[in-house]
Amino acid sequence: MKPHAEVEQVWPRDGRIRVVGRLYGLAAGAGDGWRLLLTRRSRTDHVLRYGSALDGDRFACEWAVSDLAAYDGFSGADQWDLHLTDGGLKLRVGRKLDDIRGKKAVLVYPRQAVPGAGFGVRPYFTVEDNLSLECRS
User: Fold this and answer.
1) Is-contact 35 85, C-beta < 8 A?
2) How far apart are CA 81 and CA 38, in angstroms?
3) How far apart are CA 13 and CA 117, in angstroms?
4) 8 and 21 Cβ atoms separated by less than 8 Å
5) 60-111: per-residue pLDDT in tens?
6) Is the pTM of this model over 0.70?
């Protein structure tokens, strides 16, 4: 299995989303300077960047769902994909190392309304068990 950022916990609450996990498939001491990227699927030039705390191979990152309101102009629904990067490597954030296949139909997280923006944000697993965000009006 190729290197990726393995999700262990997803915490959507109080207008924020927190993701905790481990880097998989990299040598020990993967280095510093890791950042979380949220990339809009319909407009890949729309990218949000956040610092990611790294302790050994463990990572944790958090962001406000209201940050997605800076990129409006969609109608109905839009998706954002999550990656961890150190500037060289770009690892997809997902959950592959468990016994649950088809997480999209099994694991459902609550939608959080973005005040004043007219849409809500909900983390979800894709058909490939990667973690993404859905924005829906």
Assistant:
1) yes
2) 6
3) 17
4) yes
5) 999 999 998 887 666 678 999 999 999 889 999 999 999 888 899 899 999 9
6) yes
